[in-house]
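Quick start: what a row looks like.
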Amino acid sequence: MKFLIWVIIGILVVAWLLHAKRSLKAPDSAKTDSTPPKAADGGEAMIQCAHCGLHVPLSESFGNSEGLVFCSEEHRRLGVRS
């Protein structure tokens, strides 16, 4: 019985160490992650439409090949307002 308790404690320590090791690597892997950036308070980042200036969530925006972002597919098609 005493041996079983020590085995369980050993397994828990190893699991805790592996979890701690993964959490230390997390910031490096976030650089290559393609998820949208988060705002400082944990909400989603907002972007400004290159055509009309409206602010929309990044997940709802439309991008073009030049790296510009727009609030709608129509504004993406129209491009930057002159």
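That is the whole record. The beta strands are 46-48, 55-57, 62-63, 69-70. The first strand starts at residue 46 and ends at 48.
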